[in-house]
């Protein structure tokens, strides 16, 4: 994670350096600098400052924050080229502008759905890619290019609305969580944009791409809330010195450099060059400080656990369990294959070797799935759970048990709750298969009032009274430990007319349940 943070910061430094060099070349070539360029350059400076501020505090390499930073950088270069009248650069700006509908639609959809599966994802992506490619190919024809560009924006907006309607529940969940932040961002961005448009309403050249500024500013408050949550969830030893002084220093430096430029009667573009150079210098200094701080923190042994001995014992138990698996399953099969290799010329021996290797392959895959559940992004969450239950049933071929999953088709659980629920279903369903002697197992899953409700019911023998050592068994102890850490609860009660019912409640706590990849 630390290495990713430094790499992202280094890329931002490179971007700032190239942009500053580009402005210097423009100044050196004495290109005509018109008054209408002040607005785009000011927005570029604000965009770059925002990207720098976000990246400097993105210690946990949050995917959404990185994505937003890249969008800001892309928009900066797009506006930088579009403002020039030199055919080469204006043409390059138009080509970048043709990619904007695709870039922005992908960004906002990933913001809403957290890059998970949603209805209409593939058709919309293929349609956007096709239109973008056609627009780029039609660049030599100005009329066709502008026509396809307009169609591209229209299709992007329309498909975005259709996708939101097709995934109504998840969209409503998102707007319940982020509606206030989006509204505040819209007001903060829209009011200045409206005032600016009114002032320059008779000068259309000053109003180009004004709508673009509003679009990229929409997630502003959400981004800063995510940054706040990220800082609260990151230990002091896991991050470099806090950059709370960056904003006042940058503002003070910008004011001083602007005043100095005005006092010395420097060209306006020279003032922007000074400001971008100062921003690049801040990034460079912070990179050096961050590199040193992160290197020192790597050498410090610190623990985040309130009871280190308990967690150490747990870690040792996991290591021992994995070691036993390697010895009893993997190593034994490998030795068997080694001993049979000398007789591999016999058909029956070759068949035995292949079956042993296939069994070993299956065993390793099962162990990998147990350690880190792989939820397929090409399938919905319900389909992933159905596949899990089918796999569990296949491991007990002699038990004729009917398994049923009751959950909404559009069920949506954000990280890390989707994986937690995956493990819970696996453990509880396995227990029901092993010990219940049931003919039917039913798994019920729903989300109500930001709380995950999971029940695993069977019609087996059950208990008249629950054993006192029930939760000391390895499987249930693991479930209980997970739920305790996540703030949930597990209750096991008799099921009517027979069997048991294991009920799990797992709260997704308020606004923090929508973490925007904070833990990724």
Characterize the structure shown.
This protein is elongated. The protein has helices at 2-28, 38-57, 63-82, 87-113, 121-137, 142-166, 168-199, 210-217, 220-232, 246-263, 268-298, 308-341, 347-371, 381-394, 417-435, 474-486; strands spanning 402-406, 440-448, 451-458, 489-494, 500-507. The relative contact order is 0.08. It is α+β, with helices and mostly antiparallel strands and 520 residues long. It has a five-stranded mixed sheet, with helices on one face. The chain folds into three domains: 2-298, no CATH class; 306-372; 377-520, 2-Layer Sandwich (Heat Shock Protein 90), CATH 3.30.565. A hairpin with a 2-residue loop joins strand 2 (440-448) and strand 3 (451-458).
In brief, what are we looking at here?
One of its GO terms (molecular function) is protein histidine kinase activity. With 520 residues, this protein is of the alpha+beta class.
Total beta strands:
5
Radius of gyration: 29 Å
How many structural domains can be distinguished in the coordinates? 3
The shape, in one word, is elongated
In percent, how helical is the residue content? 55-70%
Helix-strand category: alpha+beta
Organism: Eubacterium limosum
Protein name: Sensor histidine kinase LiaS
Keywords: Kinase, Membrane, Transferase, Transmembrane, Transmembrane helix, Two-component regulatory system
EC number: 2.7.13.3
């Amino acid at each position: 994670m630390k290495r990713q943070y430094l790499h992202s910061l280094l890329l931002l430094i490179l971007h700032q350096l190239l942009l500053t060099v580009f402005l210097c070349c423009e100044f050196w070539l004495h290109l005509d600098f018109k008054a209408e360029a002040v607005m785009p350059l000011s927005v570029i400076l604000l965009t770059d400052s925002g990207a720098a501020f976000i990246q400097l505090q993105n210690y946990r390499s949050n995917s959404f924050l990185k994505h937003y930073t890249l969008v800001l950088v892309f928009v900066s270069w797009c506006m930088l080229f579009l403002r020039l009248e030199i055919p080469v650069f204006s043409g390059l700006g138009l080509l970048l502008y043709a990619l904007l509908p695709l870039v922005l639609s992908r960004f906002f959809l990933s913001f809403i759905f957290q890059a998970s599966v949603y209805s209409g994802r593939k058709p919309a992506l293929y349609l956007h890619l096709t239109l973008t490619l056609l627009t780029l190919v039609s660049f030599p024809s100005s009329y066709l290019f502008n026509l396809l560009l307009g169609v591209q924006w229209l299709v992007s907006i329309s498909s975005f609305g259709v996708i939101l309607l097709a995934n109504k529940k998840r969209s409503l969940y998102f707007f319940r969580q982020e509606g206030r932040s989006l509204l505040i961002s819209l007001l903060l961005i829209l009011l200045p944009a409206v005032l600016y448009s009114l002032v320059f309403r008779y000068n259309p050249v000053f109003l180009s791409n004004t709508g673009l500024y509003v679009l990229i500013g929409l997630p502003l408050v959400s981004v800063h809330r995510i940054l706040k949550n990220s800082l609260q969830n990151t230990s002091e030893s896991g991050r470099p010195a806090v950059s709370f002084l960056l904003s006042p220093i940058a503002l003070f430096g910008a004011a001083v450099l602007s005043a100095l430029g005005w006092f010395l009667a420097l060209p306006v573009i020279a003032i922007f060059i000074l400001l971008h150079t100062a921003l690049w210098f801040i990034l460079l200094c912070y990179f050096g400080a961050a590199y040193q701080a992160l290197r020192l923190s790597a050498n410090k042994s610190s623990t985040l656990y309130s009871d280190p001995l308990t967690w150490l014992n747990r870690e040792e138990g996991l290591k021992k369990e994995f070691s036993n698996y390697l010895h009893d399953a993997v190593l034994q099969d490998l030795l068997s294959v080694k001993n049979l290799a000398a007789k591999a010329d016999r058909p029956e021996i070759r068949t035995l070797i292949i079956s042993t290797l296939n069994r070993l392959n299956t065993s390793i895959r099962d162990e990998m799935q147990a350690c880190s559940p792989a939820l397929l992004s090409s399938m919905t969450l319900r389909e992933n759970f159905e596949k899990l239950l089918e796999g569990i049933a296949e491991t007990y071929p002699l038990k004729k048990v009917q398994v049923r999953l009751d959950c909404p088709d559009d069920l949506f659980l954000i990280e890390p709750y989707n994986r937690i629920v995956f493990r819970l279903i696996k453990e509880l369903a396995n227990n029901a298969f092993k010990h219940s002697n049931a003919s039917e197992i039913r798994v019920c899953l729903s989300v109500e009032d930001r709380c995950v409700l999971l029940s695993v019911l069977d019609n087996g023998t059950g208990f008249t009274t629950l054993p006192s050592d029930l939760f000391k068994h390895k499987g249930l102890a693991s479930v209980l430990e997970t739920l305790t850490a996540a703030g949930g609860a597990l209750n096991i009660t008799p099921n009517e007319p027979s069997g048991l019912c294991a009920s799990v409640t797992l709260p997704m706590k308020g606004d923090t349940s929508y973490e925007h990849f904070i833990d990724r």
